[in-house]
């Protein structure tokens, strides 16, 4: 079929819709069979980097010879989205694919929807039709004409979004100085390796490495020499560990090694100590250093990274107490904090009954208007026996023990009730304002929801009941999820998110950039906000990698139509950087510390023109 023939057939049947289709920003193709394109809108040609004439000309060279899946692997022709739609007769929705251009082998990434159509829907006569167009269409694809199958393909270009995501993932998983895995990558690796070892019945070992008196090197020779020493040690450590394990830079002068075979732990630890003691030539200097290493064995000392890390850390400090420059294997007698853990757990089990838990709210401030547009609910615990217990201590324990479910249910009811009171307060206050007086946007209230809660089958029912009892408007509520949670293949999770979305609740990804959520998950789940993790913001503006990560997340949020909030903003320099990259909103001590509900209420009654992102509060 020639290009004019294609236009004639398409226009005869689609004229009433062409104006609408031509105005779309999405590309639209109408294809007959597996090869003949009988209609293309202008956006399709623009996105594909060609012309409509070239798309419609059956004699023109094919502009795509390979289609890639989300991971960059070539798809068989029968697995291309259009072929799947034709083969199954079902719509293929939001397939994430890469098109390899035949001219220069460049890849353009698209989100594609393919809908199979009947003959008359796409302007293709049936095989029995006497129309002269039948011959032309059958010439284009005789077999398809006899089957009478057409497909409409709509797509949008997400190449820039994918590239931004790729850069975020790379920068987020590698230490910028040594090139080793950073915390996020190591946690992900260990989280997968430890369960596999358990299934095999194998013992693994975690080595916690701390450099002895590293601060003295920095003080004596400067940070450039200290950095050079870290880089050289990382190279040596990698050589020692090799394929037998995984290594990461955990902190300033701390490294972690996960060994696949615990029987090698002591020998590897000694080789690490020996090689660190060999002088490092750094310019005109020769520097050597000692190591203190703590070793924890799985499953003997724990089954998860957090437990092993605590025990290895304890053993490392025992090595320092014994004179440094040595390794120690954990044993329970070392660890006085085990008693503390037991006391915290026991107290936590009684905390609800004793009314020891409370909620504070940290404001979220819009960077353009300086208005407090939302708050994040944060859990606090003042124990009658233990005093103030930090969330970093009791929240992971609540997760581990399952106490997070009843505590989370209590917190949800408290937050929903308070959100409803603020909604009433804002409505009543707005009614008292003179015409033309600026009005605040409705306050959005965010609540952290843990993995255990979202995988709880009764969650949606509990939320629905709490909404009914409180009268809170769900569209003003935001559930904050962890990035790693989206990777879980759980029917319960998917059902809970679907039901919560139908109620009107919004979702945010908390600590974004520290996990591994793929592009398809960002497109699949109803996410409205990305929150940049404070570990990146804390390194701004001195760390170029952290700045690149933050800027990439802001750009990706904008490309996806999501709101972007930076967490942990504590300095003027961080605030100005976030303004410069056009971040939507900020949260942190630089803007406001967590406040009680009454203080938030007072702020809601403050005139808008009195608000500013001013001095540290």
UniProtKB/TrEMBL annotation:
The organism's place on the tree of life at top rank: Bacteria
Q: Which InterPro entries match?
A: Biofilm_reg_signaling (IPR052155), EAL_dom (IPR001633), EAL_sf (IPR035919), GGDEF_dom (IPR000160), Nucleotide_cyclase (IPR029787), PAS (IPR000014), PAS-like_dom_sf (IPR035965), Rev_trsase/Diguanyl_cyclase (IPR043128)
Domain named EAL: residues = 341-608
Instruction: Report the residue ranges that make up the GGDEF domain in this protein.
Output: 202-332
Q: Which Gene3D superfamilies match?
A: 3.30.70.270, EAL domain, PAS domain
Q: Which PANTHER family match?
A: BIOFILM ARCHITECTURE MAINTENANCE PROTEIN MBAA (PTHR44757:SF2), DIGUANYLATE CYCLASE DGCP (PTHR44757)
Q: What is this protein called?
A: EAL domain-containing protein
Organism field: Pararobbsia silviterrae
